[in-house]
């Protein structure tokens, strides 16, 4: 929804056990025959016996994790069949139906979630949320409800339902509209208010609120003073366990989204409170936490095993069944269901807590990025910034003042600027750009249940690099630590890049580090700070990056060459490097399938060859003028033929500017060539 948020992958969480294990295993084993298991399970959803319906839901929860089966489920209208079961008389069926829909919405992506809204899943989902909310206040329970209370309480069912709601709202604007109209805010805030007794449910609600409050002015009007107090209480909760750290971080993100409805006299105080929480989260050493928590888990399991062995020797095997199995994890009594928050899988507490910290750090970095881009320029300002049509009177050298300049930095408010620097956010973000702890990576790689944390640690590094890009673009050099700090940072990014021989294979990392490098080199060039990467290093990076399938990477690569080339153009003895740079950029401009990348490459050509004796000599020797003249009509034709169907209005506006600048630059190069060859 927001400009800078990246949709997080949510692991499907429903793992059937007990009587439903066989049904779920059968669903998994039917992977090759997609229609068979799907049809059988969907038929069982209508069975008169509640346990059969429950097991069918459990089987579907496993089945939807196999992507090839999703079309078969869509053909057989799985959503319309599962939806009514959210209001099934059996609480166990409600919970498993919500679990199946939760996994479907997590695995299916945007199209499936939007289809779920079309199939009217929101009607029973909202009704279920309202019933669960009413159930929290009710002291009267039927005998069946009392029997199922420990396994299927209102809070457990609500947790599953909130996760379905979160998944769908993150993917569908129509779902967000329904959230607004149906008064879901009051319901989920009631769940959040129970954070002191059910942190899992509170975390699920906080995830959902952070999503639905982003770019949603209609919902902001619904926030009363009481609602804000609920959020404030959760954010300022004194409990410091790892799960509560995640909760407070998510609530801080929600409160940031609500900044427009917070009284102006409280703005500075709220911003400082938010950034204090983010600072504390980023202060934590994730690698050390992984190491310590894995050691704690190992010790706990060892102690439990020794205790079990001792009991066997003293009392025999029969007594084991009467021992509290929670203390003996590998012999734990089977539970029929164990649903928890999306980012907290149903596993041992050490792993849960570690994942909570990693998720909190990722979220904190995303909030900082959102803060940096909270005050977007108007459309007129964007048009002005993306255009380089200074004046026809500058035809002699219309590009001499460009100097590879990126869009002008956005202005941070004084309150945000002060809070960022007072909480040492830039320094803490810099630290998070380091590669993950090798010992922690090794521990995770050797333990299957901990292995997914490797991806989380890598994601934190990528988010930190994106955050770094924002901070470098927005803060002045002094608040970034001064000239020496920027040079050290450039060396650090260079080491990160070239310490990974296969960096070109990791698109997320490559896009993040190329964006950070682009912003850093631009800042250094604008302040005449000497750059620490050699032209050969940059060219090696660019040659690898230009083959990426990610358009963002390719755009960053050519922009980096434009920035560094414009600096080299003003120095002596750079002729050969400029010729190599020019040939590379020309090849990208004329051969890249994306007009966005081609346009950026042409912009880089304008930057590199706009000024300087070495640049003029290089342009003549690589026959830049004739190459651009030949490409000019091709570029115009591509914009005319491909533009309307493939590119957004904003992209077309930029491409039109490039087309105009190309015409002007060709005219300028003609004067250069005449002067040098006459």
From TrEMBL:
What are the GO MF terms of this UniProt record?
Answer: unfolded protein binding
Which InterPro entries would you find in this protein's record? ARM-like, ARM-type_fold, Armadillo, SYO1-like, TPR_SYO1
Function, please? Plays a role in ribosome biogenesis and in nuclear import of the 60S ribosomal protein L5/large ribosomal subunit protein uL18 (RPL5). Required for proper erythrocyte maturation.
Q: Which SUPFAM superfamilies match?
A: ARM repeat
Quote the Pfam families the UniProt record gives. HEAT_EZ, TPR_SYO1
Biological processes, Gene Ontology terms: erythrocyte maturation; protein import into nucleus; ribosomal large subunit biogenesis
Gene3D superfamilies reported in the protein's UniProt record: Leucine-rich Repeat Variant
| SMART domains according to UniProt | ARM (SM00185)
**Compositional bias ranges of the Basic residues kind:** 1-11
Domain of life according to the entry: Eukaryota
Q: Does the keyword Phosphoprotein apply?
A: yes
Q: Where is this region: Disordered?
A: 1-36
Q: What is this protein called?
A: HEAT repeat-containing protein 3
Ranges of residues in domain SYO1-like TPR repeats: 415-671
The record's gene field reads HEATR3
Family to which the UniProt record says this protein belongs: Belongs to the nuclear import and ribosome assembly adapter family.
| Quaternary structure (record) | Component of a hexameric 5S RNP precursor complex, composed of 5S RNA, RRS1, RPF2/BXDC1, RPL5, RPL11 and HEATR3; this complex acts as a precursor for ribosome assembly.
Signal peptide range equals: none
Alphabetical UniProt keywords: Erythrocyte maturation, Phosphoprotein, Repeat, Ribosome biogenesis
Protein's UniProt keywords contain Glycoprotein: no
